[in-house]
Amino acid sequence: MLSEKVYYAHVTTTENAPNLESIAMGQPGYVLAMPTFANVEEERAYRKSRLAGALRIFGRLGFGEGVAGHITVRDPELTDHFWVNPFGLSFRHMRVSDLLLVNHHGEVVHGTMPVNRAAFVIHSAIHSARPEVIAAAHAHSVHGKAFSSLGIPLDPITQDACIFYNDHTVIAEQGGAVVFDVEAGKEMAEKFPTGKAAIHLNHGLFTVGSSVEEAAFWFLSMDRSCQAQLLAMAAGTPKLIKHEYAQYTREQTGHSLAGWFQFQPLWQEICRTDPELFD
């Protein structure tokens, strides 16, 4: 069973340690490393288990609202297909066996439940436009919704917010409208050509990553950063972190491996409390 393992790689020279600052204190010679796989079936099982776990974590954090919200992950073999949560199934009860495999025509090719049309329209457009994106996350979180109504980017007012410094966008197109039309989804994707996150006007947050873990953690962190900025703006005028500090902090804490690793404590918790997610 794929469970709560944390992956490390042994470092013998500086050449195979691309970010020496990621070396764990007290563990010289080891850096964090994403897992490798013997075959595509093993990688698919890994991605699906993390998807089911991330959905349960979203539910636990209160990101579920009715039937809204979805996380997708690209299939490692059928790269124009993605796995997604079924329409109308609780985040908190998600199991690996519940997940749907959907192609870019919106057809469910594995699974028996329907897919959320908005999930297909938006996520298929993002996955098609950005081949480097392995996973994408969206939910109607309260603070993300509230912040999206302002139509402004996130400011670098905390260390955590610096993760997104000059690495996210605000999308005004289709703002507030339910995105069911394929062309509308493509229009949104065109406005999100780079970066790890987007704030969709009057709608909420979208995050992407090279793994489910990364995309899910960016969503969690961005929602909380939105909450922090809303609170700070309500209290007064927040002071911005200097450009060079904000950029440095993003470079150190906003890369893919950092996002993947930040998710690991959440993954460990959900494995211990919800082992049935592997069913």
Automatic annotation (TrEMBL):
<dbReference type="InterPro" id="IPR036409">
    <property type="entry name" value="Aldolase_II/adducin_N_sf"/>
</dbReference>
<dbReference type="GO" id="GO:0051015">
    <property type="term" value="F:actin filament binding"/>
</dbReference>
<protein>
    <submittedName>
        <fullName>Unannotated protein</fullName>
    </submittedName>
</protein>
<feature type="domain" description="Class II aldolase/adducin N-terminal">
    <location>
        <begin position="49"/>
        <end position="230"/>
    </location>
</feature>
<dbReference type="InterPro" id="IPR001303">
    <property type="entry name" value="Aldolase_II/adducin_N"/>
</dbReference>
<dbReference type="GO" id="GO:0005856">
    <property type="term" value="C:cytoskeleton"/>
</dbReference>
<dbReference type="Pfam" id="PF00596">
    <property type="entry name" value="Aldolase_II"/>
</dbReference>
<dbReference type="InterPro" id="IPR051017">
    <property type="entry name" value="Aldolase-II_Adducin_sf"/>
</dbReference>
